[in-house]
Amino acid sequence: MASDDGVLREEAQVRERCKDLILSDETIAELMRRIMKDVEKGLCKDTHKEAVVKCFITYVQDLPNGTERGEFLALDLGGTNFRVLLIHLGQNHFDMQSKIYAIPQSIMVGTGEQLFDHIAECLANFMKEHDVYSHKLPLGFTFSFPLQQLGLTKGLLETWTKGFKCSGVVGNDVVQLLKDAIRRRGDIQIQVCAILNDTTGTLMSCAWKNHNCRIGLIVGTGCNVCYVEKTENCELFDGNTNKPDCIVNTEWGAFGSDGALDIVITEYDREIDENSINPGKQLFEKMISGMYMGELVRLALVRLTKDNLLFGGKLSDHLLKRGNFFTKYVSEIESDKRGSFLNCREVLGELGLSHATEQDCANVRYICECVSRRAAHLVSAGIAVLINKMKEPSLTVGVDGSVYRFHPHFHDLMVEKIKQLILPGIKFDLMLSEDGSGRGAALVAAVACREN
């Protein structure tokens, strides 16, 4: 049995080794300067091409005002599944039916034509099931991948993320690819009214209930943000300049691929990046999102166990396998009451680490907290940059995504940190989005129809 002195020494060493996962105030201030610089680069015509944070114009210029009515389809493609939704908008209420469809691995890495034919087939089946097969319906298309928009219904895919590698899509208009697939079938009438990503959907969904919403944030499998910018600051905007505002999709997950994050990158971040499908890209996202958070913790656990600071130096085959420490484990472990390790023991048991001591459990929790707190502080730094840039006296940030939704402390960590970082006198609140990528897509289509 380890002595008390030995346990304390071990705990101190673990904390010392986790120091590089903790961001100082000076580091956060420097990151904020770099994020601001990159946002301005993305907005500017002369620097956009080499900008890392692209700040794509969405061409969504109007927020919901409550007068939207009718029947709309929404298609939400953003990961290994996609959803089709049928939404009825009435006065201050909506009725929604939806169905989730899987995308087989073979299609995720097949051709673009196969992907969009699969989606069109599922759309047709959904319309049959819901007795709207013969209706001509407007559709809002949430496409949660980096997109260069050339209009409300034209968007070129910049790069695939999240494990997709469909050929013949990068550089092409995904709305046209969807329309072509619908036309190849010839049996359904769908008018694609708008393409957007999940951040815009989140902003729109929250703005329908709260007209003060100006930022849409996703912290889930990926991480991205959009915000309302003055049209005059959007140098690449090619549309109606009479309207004062336009939503900008920052694609900030790419921040850092030029070295801007080197001041905070750890050995674990490097290893995640090297073993990812897109090395050197989406570095900010890889430090924050649910796709990577559990793996960051696993790498830290493996390293500290090899250095004899955890589990008596004894590793398990489960822990050594990449991807085996799920991000949901981080939320579960941090949900334990202080001093209790019920969830932690269950997780470690699943990983073949039943021999963990109480001190091991405390150390595992501490490592989880370091990784999730760093993620929350990185997101907060970026949000504070946008709030300070907009200079609105009061605004709401609409947020969605599994990490924000399910991590027990993420919301509080963000509120506390953003308060420290924004200019004096500005009020803000964080609002959990209700189905931004579904309802939000239908609302963008509804607002577009309202315009016509």
UniProtKB/TrEMBL annotation:
Reactions this protein catalyses: D-glucose + ATP = D-glucose 6-phosphate + ADP + H(+); D-fructose + ATP = D-fructose 6-phosphate + ADP + H(+); D-mannose + ATP = D-mannose 6-phosphate + ADP + H(+); a D-hexose + ATP = a D-hexose 6-phosphate + ADP + H(+)
- Which keywords fit this entry according to its UniProt record? ATP-binding, Glycolysis, Kinase, Nucleotide-binding, Transferase
> What organism is recorded for this protein?
Thrips palmi
Q: Which domain of life is it from?
A: Eukaryota
Give the Hexokinase N-terminal domain ranges.
Answer: 14-208
What is this protein's name? Phosphotransferase
Report domain Hexokinase C-terminal positions.
214-447
Membership in a protein family: Belongs to the hexokinase family.
The UniProt entry, under Gene3D superfamilies, shows: 3.30.420.40, 3.40.367.20
Write out the GO biological process terms.
glucose metabolic process; glycolytic process; intracellular glucose homeostasis
